[in-house]
């Protein structure tokens, strides 16, 4: 089959957090377009809001099929089929049920004191140190790491080890497949050893303990699934939130009047957080790949069974037919049906937790540092070369 019209993907943006012009052009002229991934495989890139919603909710577009070794993929290594992120219902539903309560609004609210105290302590240290300070090192990374460690029952003291492994696993071209495979093995071994330690000396009611109990009670959870689930929850529990918080902070720093307005009117923080989520370009690929299990017509294109489909949530969140002035960052935006947390079976388990962390962090930051401003020119800032892009540092002064 001739795929000579496939566009090289991912695209390169013109600035630090700006979207490449190809996204808007595709939404206008080729909403379902053939692209070629860095692996050499091809797939369909879906850029419009309604089409993205369709892919996210239609069971004919399969995450499990995308995890098969022979499936088209964006990265050198296939996903582990035992991961909840690589499952379809009913297997996905089986694992989802084991942790759904822990991520529900009622249970997440119990973490509010931890989130508030962790944020306050970080900002206390920042104020005591005095300007300049690196917001990524002080707040954006430590906060979600500390909270997911508390929720899962993972020692915070081990953060340098598992954050390093996660960075290697999520890298784009900066590590070899062998290094990525080694990092996967290292973090899996770490979680397996932690699980065994918890079995020997049960303590507390953390989420890993809950999963261990489910495994022991015969809840059809294999030992491999238990370990992989722990790895997934640990990495997903901090990485995207850290990136979104840092990128959102930069958007506010670009708009000092908006930052000052939030300091005066903290009731506006909730809307600002939703806009930070909508506007984020942290995900380089815009979404997570699926594979069609049968022929499907989508956006005027016939997607054949076995072909890869990438629903680009990042692009859907900039769809001019859904969001007024879609390329403008508007912290007061009222109508904001963004898809940052996905939709359907794979709607983000941690959405409530992420919203809590982002809201508390922004509330405290603008209240305590209303005059916050960048300490270096923006051209000095850099991004990590990873699937989820994060600012390597965000120096600020006040």
Automatic annotation (TrEMBL):
The keyword RNA-binding does not apply. Its EC number is 1.14.13.-. The keyword Nucleus does not apply. It comes from the Bacteria. It is an enzyme of class 1 (oxidoreductase). Keywords: Heme, Iron, Metal-binding, Monooxygenase, Oxidoreductase. One of its GO terms (molecular function) is oxidoreductase activity, acting on paired donors, with incorporation or reduction of molecular oxygen. InterPro entries: Cyt_P450 (IPR001128), Cyt_P450_B (IPR002397), Cyt_P450_CS (IPR017972), Cyt_P450_sf (IPR036396). This is Nocardicin N-oxygenase.
């Amino acid at each position: 089959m001739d795929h000579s019209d496939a566009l090289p993907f991912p695209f390169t943006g013109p600035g630090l957090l700006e979207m490449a012009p190809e996204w808007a052009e595709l939404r206008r002229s080729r909403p379902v377009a053939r692209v070629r991934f860095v692996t050499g495989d091809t797939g369909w890139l879906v850029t419009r809001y309604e089409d993205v919603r369709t892919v996210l909710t239609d069971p004919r577009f399969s995450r499990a099929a995308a995890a098969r070794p022979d499936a088209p993929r964006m990265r050198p290594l296939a996903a582990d089929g035992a991961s909840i992120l690589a499952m379809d219902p009913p297997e996905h539903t089986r694992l989802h049920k084991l942790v759904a309560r822990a991520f529900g609004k009622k249970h997440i609210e119990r973490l509010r004191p931890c989130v508030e105290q962790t944020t306050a302590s970080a900002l206390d240290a920042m104020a005591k140190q005095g300007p300049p300070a690196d917001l990524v090192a002080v707040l954006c990374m430590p906060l979600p790491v500390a909270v997911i460690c508390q929720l899962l029952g993972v020692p915070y003291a081990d953060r340098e080890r598992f954050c390093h492994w996660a960075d290697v696993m999520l890298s784009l071209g900066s590590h070899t497949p062998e290094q990525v495979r080694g990092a996967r093995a290292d973090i899996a071994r770490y979680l397996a050893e932690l699980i065994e330690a918890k079995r020997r000396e049960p303590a507390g009611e953390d989420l890993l303990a809950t999963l261990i109990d489910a495994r022991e009670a015969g809840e059809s959870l294999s030992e491999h699934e238990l370990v992989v689930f722990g790895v997934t929850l640990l990495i997903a529990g901090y990485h995207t939130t850290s990136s979104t918080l840092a990128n959102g902070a930069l958007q506010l720093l670009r708009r000092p009047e908006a930052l000052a307005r939030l300091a005066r009117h903290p009731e506006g923080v909730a809307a600002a957080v939703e806009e930070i989520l909508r506007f984020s370009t942290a995900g380089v690929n815009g979404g997570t790949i699926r594979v069609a299990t049968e022929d499907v017509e989508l956006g005027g294109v016939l997607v054949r069974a076995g072909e890869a489909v990438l629903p680009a949530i990042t692009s859907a969140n900039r769809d001019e037919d859904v969001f007024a002035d879609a390329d403008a960052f508007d912290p007061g935006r009222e109508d904001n049906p963004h898809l940052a947390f996905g939709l359907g079976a794979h709607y983000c388990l941690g959405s409530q937790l992420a919203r809590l962390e982002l809201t508390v962090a922004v509330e405290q930051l603008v209240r305590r540092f209303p005059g916050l401003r960048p300490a270096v020119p923006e051209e000095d800032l850099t991004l990590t070369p990873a699937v989820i892009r994060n600012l390597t540092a965000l120096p600020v002064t006040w």
